[in-house]
Amino acid sequence: MNKALPWIVGAAMIALPFVYSAPYPMHLMIVVLIWSFAYTSWSVMGRFGLVSLGHGGFMGVGAYGTALLWNHLGLTPWIGIPISMVMAVALALVVAYPCSRFRITGHYFALVTLALSAIVLQVATASRDLTGGSLGYTPERVQGGGNILAFQFESKISWYFVALGFWALGLLIRWWVDRSMIAYALEAIAEDEDAAGAAGVNVTAEKLKITALSAAMTAAAGGVYCQYQMFISPDTVSGISVSLQMVFAAVVGGIYVLPGPTVGAIITILLAEGLRIFFGTGALGYDNLVYGTLLVVFIIFLPQGLVGAAWNKLTGARQTA
Amino acid sequence: MPRRLGEYRPDATRSENALNVARMFDIYLLEAAINGILLGGVLALLALGLNLVFGVIDVVWICYAELIMMGMYGMFYLVSVYHFPFVAAALISIGLVAILGILLHLIVIAPLLNAAPINQLLATGGVLAFLQALATVVFGIDFRNLGIRMPVIEIADMFISYARLLAFGTALAGMVAVYLFLTKTYTGTAIRAIAQDRQIMPLMGVDSRRIYLVTSAIGGGLAGLASCLLVLQYDVHPFIGLTFGPITFMICVLGGLGNMIGGFVAAFLFAEIISVGGLYLDLEWGYVFAFVFFIVVMFFRPRGLLARNS
Question: Could you list the residue range(s) of the whole structural domain that residue A296 is in?
């Protein structure tokens, strides 16, 4: 049963748009999938105690990099997204290398990476001649709606499959990481850096690998988000709020289990949409009111998240947080 | 005939014009430097409250700037809507934010005292989102200000705002008061002792729960004081915290979390970089320089500017 479950879910999700494809639910699914990919990318390193608040920065680099390369150099996002990913990785390494070299961990790591996302936000806002500043930025549309080469699709169904692909890839990468030697090494590092180092783990190298991977995935999510929405602004793709949003969703769903961040994305996005529909535009801020409360409640009472708690209940195991 | 600084005159020689432009540049630079010092005073006050809380309770209040935002709204409603005198409103706001600090400790921090540090940080992150959203829902997203116009003082072609001078002076006075409290009173001594050794002090008869509450109240009170000063210079809106928050954390980390003197020094360094950097380009670039400076310094002094290299 356990082995078959991912295949059943996968097949159901591929079949879904052929059965039901109303535009609004489709849109919600696409948004949930893209953000799930981003949250999963965060959790790839977050689950090893490397709590980064810089992922808003990586997402911003991915989104702005893709859009700027397309508008100014005419570079297709198929190349632009990988270039942006490389830039995000470079940025991540510039910060992560000294962090692990000089033992900046815990609070300090979170605050240093916070500076990173603040920098990206400020640069995107300040270079307003290039990026439109806080008014936002739009990649140029190609004539005739959809164009595979330009990474622009007209139908929601195409977008659904693109988002589904990225999401599945994200889960696959995390699944692979969780089963690899890196996971053992990083778990040892999270427990005790000195002991791990003494046991022959190359602490810096392992941390850099996982940080680079996580940053690259997040930047890809930024690029895809930009292509789907066709509009980005500094506040929606970078900065401390986006970083915190990633942490919220991942923590609410559970960062130690594979589907956790996805469940977090479903809950947070449906909650926001639900409140918006129910209260109209008067609901501005209601969703964050609930998120903020949920985050506090979860961290106090259920630090392993919804899926994590359910999983522990089912298996009867007491997983260490 | 007197010339305005920086004025270009076609009849003057090229070097005369160039000299005049250079003089103007210097006076702007000096003005920026002085404004930097004044900004530094307020930033130092912001950092002091956060550092105190971190030093004693070992928790980073990510939502610290949101407490300040609540204080600014308090000032706005008391002064502009209910027409309290400024000083009375300030005292009430300081009290209210101090109470918020105590509530934050009781509701969020106390249950997490033994949890992983990062969980405490994330929980206060939740409070950040909550307070921002609460302000959006209750106060709306409009920018509001007290509508008090403070005079601008002109000294030797430089313009210094009175609000900034007042903020600088009050911030310094507030810091001196906290210093005296910490060094001259029994409770202050107990607070410093807890900051040095959390395990031993309860054995020596210090009620650590009470000390934590007092510290949270002072931390909140300092945020309240900062809000009274900031509301004179900035409009209030629900997201104002994002303007001050990241800078405050970086100053604290730069000075060494919990190191109050380090925070003081770092505040002035930061303020100068923002102010002088912002002179040559946009203000946002001033912030970018300051943040980059922060990251670079972290590489050389990961435990803060004044930390001893171990």
Answer: 5-315
